[in-house]
Specification:
The chain has an eight-stranded parallel beta sheet with strand order 7-6-5-4-3-2-1-8. The chain is built from 14 helices and eight strands. It is an alpha/beta fold and about 350 residues long. Helix content is about 50%, strand content about 10%. Helix 8 links the parallel strand 3 (about 155-160) and strand 4. The protein is globular.
Length: about 350
């Protein structure tokens, strides 16, 4: 193989080499839906000295996010591989007041077959198990989702603990978690008491999250920070640390009901907290952005951010999820374009 001595040629070759490595790992994760092996975060004692030392350099954080949002572009076949990876990380969600058994059944069917068979065939993925990371519903819809997903290996996630406001008594929030787990939920998305964060009552935040972790039992605990209500990035970082110390398996940006949901500055703050926690304790904690993520290109940006900040392990569904209800439709539309060279009309793709 002839390689030009020109520096730009070398740079292009290195770029395509790393793109190739990511495509290989993307295909592997689509092929193998077995649970990834890493030690679950057991939590630690509350370290107030660590929490109190937090200070965020806001201009630097914003500059890093601006650079990321404008310079990441993935095209052609590479894009299809990244989009397939993104599908495996989606928590396909329905959290509406008018949810019914038929809504949940339709959602579960889409989770099992998120992309049209002819698209899968054209992409060379026929016979492979391309499915979403989980299905997320309210507690009283968990049993239906578990029944519809039986035998697929797709976990059912349930919101709980007074979602979305978290303004109910702790006893009731714990009972709601226990109910969702008893119905078959394998993952629980709880909401943080934002009033305690805003008052700086970190000991109370720690004790509440720790109690919720105990109520989850074997079910994984995803703690929603509701970052749009926390006021400052300092609070976001501190809340992230306290939740991880209390035993959270995943920290999540938003309920999707706040005025401001998943943004890159907030996400980067949480990812740096995850990285610091991992460096100090050795335990890996997952991350889930949610709210306002609707375009396929957004999912690519989130995956790139995870890879750059935390590494390949955090681009897989056991440590990275995207909370979304409409994102899957746009990803399927982009995959259709990649497969057939044209965009599908909206009526040609099944609703999630």
């Amino acid at each position: 193989l002839f390689i030009s001595r020109d520096w730009w040629q070398w740079r292009r070759l290195v770029f395509f080499f790393f793109q190739f490595l990511f495509v290989v790992t993307a295909v592997v994760i689509v092929f193998d839906r077995r649970k990834m092996v890493h030690e679950r975060n057991p939590g630690t004692e509350l370290d107030m000295e660590w929490v109190s030392s937090v200070h965020i350099n806001l201009p630097s954080m914003n500059r890093r996010c601006e650079q990321h949002s404008v310079r990441r572009s993935i095209k052609m076949g590479w894009q299809a591989a990244w989009l397939l990876r993104a599908i495996t990380c989606i928590d396909l969600t329905t959290l509406s007041g008018d949810d019914t058994e038929s809504n949940v059944k339709r959602l579960c069917f889409k989770a099992k077959k998120p992309v049209r068979p002819d698209i899968i065939k054209e992409l060379g993925m026929e016979g492979k198990r391309v499915m979403t990371g989980a299905v997320c519903v309210y507690p009283n819809r968990v049993r239906e989702a578990v029944e519809f997903l039986k035998g697929t290996g797709i976990p059912v996630a349930s919101v709980a603990a007074g979602f979305p406001a978290g303004q109910t008594p702790l006893k009731q929030r714990l009972e709601e978690i226990e109910f969702a787990v008893s119905e078959g939920a394998g993952e629980i998305d709880i909401v943080l008491s934002r009033n305690l964060v805003l008052q700086g009552k970190w000991e109370e935040v720690y004790e509440e999250v720790k109690a919720m972790r105990q109520a989850c039992g074997e079910a994984h605990l995803k703690t929603i920070l509701a970052t749009g209500d926390l006021g400052t990035l300092d609070n976001v970082y501190k809340a992230s640390l306290v939740c991880m110390m209390a035993g959270a398996d995943v920290i999540k940006t938003s309920t999707g009901k706040e005025g401001v949901n998943a943004t890159f500055p907030v996400a980067l703050t949480m990812l740096r907290a995850i990285r610091e926690y991992h460096q100090k304790t050795g335990y890996k904690v997952g991350f889930k952005p949610a709210g306002g993520i609707r375009a396929a290109k957004d999912s690519l940006s989130w995956l790139a951010l995870m890879k750059e900040e935390l590494g390949d392990d955090w681009t897989k569904p056991d440590l990275f999820r995207i909370g979304a209800s409409s994102l899957l439709g746009d990803i399927e539309r982009q995959l259709y374009h990649n497969a057939f060279g044209r965009y599908a009309a909206s009526h040609q793709l099944a609703l999630a």
